Amino acid sequence: MRDHVIAVDVGTGSARAGVVDRNGQLLVRCEHPILLRRPQDERGEHGSEDIWRACCHAVRGALQQSGIAPDRIAALAFDATCSLVLRDHDGAPLALETEDGEAFDTIAWLDHRAATEAEECNRTGHPTLAHCGGSISPEMQMPKLMWLKRHRPDLWDRVGYLFDLSDFLTWRATGSTERSVCTLTSKWNFVAGRVSGWQADFLSLIGLDDLVQKGTLPDTAVPVGAPVGRLSAAGAAELGLDETVSVAAGMVDAYAGALGVLGGVAADPHTLHQQTALVGGTSSCIISFAGDPQFGKSLWGPYRETVFAGQWLIEAGQSATGALLGHLLRLHSLGGDPTPERHQQVIARVQQLRAIEGAGFADRIAILPDFHGNRSPFADPHLTGVISGLTLDTSFDGLGRLYWRACVAIALGLRQILETMAASGTHSSVLHLTGGHVKNPLLVELYADVTGCDLVIPDSRDAVLVGTAMNAAAAGGLYKSLTAAGAAMAPSGQRIAPNPARKALYDRDYAKFLTMQRHRVELNGL
User: Same domain for 494 and 455?
Assistant: First the structure.
């Protein structure tokens, strides 16, 4: 009986595979690293073949550890970062650079090389900009494609296929060139529900009239919860599965996390619209759903049926959250490599110092966390971070003070985003947290106390993988719909209420936060 699925989640630094049963139980999780080349601070590149090998390694490892036979796997689904994969007419990697024998043919999601091109998109004033908060981010695909055509015409002339990373993985697994509604609507300025989702006038304005033909891009796309095909003979052999396995339409990783934590309430739109998913990792994504399109400055979307049928997705984001904490560790003389163990050592000391010094611990330090620009609420990739209140303290305790106040700043930024979303009509009373931030007790506490929202922590070890498994289960026919899969497979969770005794403290911090933002504008204007 085929009663299990495999979910594969590709992040910035690794590929994770999980074997999940039809009840949503994650039986095994296996991880394999992937390469990230950083030739410059604003650039990041992957090798798509390296990513595919990591996926195969993780899937085989998860199967072996689970003891589940391949003939019990009904379906497979991928989620991934919104990175851009380049292939030639033969489907071979089209390398930006080759290093140590690896072809780096993929522009990573975090790459900001196309900031100038993003500004050019925004100056067009095209109506499509309303679906990305009034301005396209350099992290999206159109600016990156403009950059490629302009700066690497040698590669553009040879392009045969262009993929969002999760669409590349479904192609590599099945041979199908179908794309996902999830990736195209959110990262390619594609409008779902039309005869052709491509906006020819916009593509012409930005010099990409040849994009659809050049990239072998279809006019329509496959919804989440539906299959793009079955495993090819080659894909099945590499993954250690058989050709009977269905492969679901790919997903953006953050949206898989949103599905994992909100899938259980998706069948009830009234409840769904009052909940928000917070997917915290290197960056953070804040995701809500609405029955009608709701527009707002700096909010990505509304995207039609990007995850759930009949629902519009609205996303906000913080460009550097986990990345900011890791950066502070590297920056400080006593920080070192930002390993999970090092983070926990600093967190443990912060907790001790808070117990000793009380609620006012380190409150002379104030931080604006925009070290990699600001996605929401300002939609400005050029914004920079600010630290106020530094002394000559170079001790480990001094590092702890900086780390704590950076965590506070991240939570204050989240509060501002939620207020921005509320002003556009998206009101949430409950936050569902998934991703790496669930392992940081400082952030877990602050997300509830600073925002005033109830916080739900899923019991699953990896809600992103569970969301991807829901996609696979629907595509493989284990359930009749995505919402049915969500209702059956959703993990339970621990609910944390905000501590009202800390409200005045964080209200004061928030007032300082807003004041610092005003001062930054004044300084930048001199």
Answer: yes
